[in-house]
Design brief:
single chain, about 210 residues, alpha/beta, Rossmann fold, 8 helices, 6 strands, about 15% strand
């Protein structure tokens, strides 16, 4: 069954646009999103996307809902130090969690069960509850520590979907390349989309 609620976290790796586009597509599907943003994630959003979201959690939640043009019934936000948030408990966890982009620091702490903030706690809860955890690591080159942490998480059941766009669908813009990766995340999350032409599929087939 496709989850109807998702937790999506944006951490401090480059590529915040991947998280934003994924949120847009999840909301487009009719599902509910709880958005988490680490302190470094806010800095990347400001640097890469010119989005200066700041203030109290209530103020940031209002800014996010205005950006995505949805109400409180569709999008929640909790600060990274809010361990009293409902999603910090397995009894109220979302149906699936996506971390996009996922920094190597966040990846390491998730792999070790080191729940130092709400992002890491929610990932821990997602794993222990046996729900889908999708991580989009964004780093290059990768060292042995990065690879070992990804392998460890993969063995725990997490899906590792790096920010690696393909070119067989003949992307024309940077947006096309971003949407390919977002589409692969949505595939694993069980959400239908039309973000790219699949191998062997033509534009006519999509229509």
């Amino acid at each position: 069954m496709t989850p109807r609620s998702y937790t999506l976290a944006i951490t401090g790796a480059s590529g915040a646009i991947y998280g934003l586009r994924t949120v847009e597509e999840i909301l487009k599907s009719g599902a509910r999103v709880t958005l988490l943003i680490s302190r470094a994630g806010f800095a990347v959003l400001k640097e890469e996307c010119s989005l200066d979201w700041h203030g109290s959690p209530v103020e940031i939640a209002a800014q996010l809902r205005a950006h995505f043009r949805v109400g409180a019934d569709r999008l929640d936000y909790y600060a990274e130090d809010d361990f009293l948030a409902p999603i910090a408990s397995g009894s109220a966890a979302a149906g699936a969690m996506i971390v996009a982009p996922c920094s190597m620091g966040s990846l390491s702490r998730i792999a070790c069960g080191n729940s130092g903030n709400l992002v890491e706690r929610c990932a821990d809860v997602t794993l222990k509850e046996g729900k889908p955890l999708i991580l989009m690591p964004r780093e290059t080159p990768l060292n042995e520590i990065h690879l070992e942490n990804m392998l460890r998480l993969s063995r725990m059941g997490a899906a590792i979907i790096p920010a690696m766009p393909a070119f067989y669908h003949h992307p024309r813009t940077v947006g096309d390349m971003i949407d390919f990766v977002v589409g692969r995340i949505l595939d694993r999350a069980g959400l239908q989309h039309d973000l790219f032409s699949r191998w062997g599929e033509t534009e006519k087939d999509k229509q």
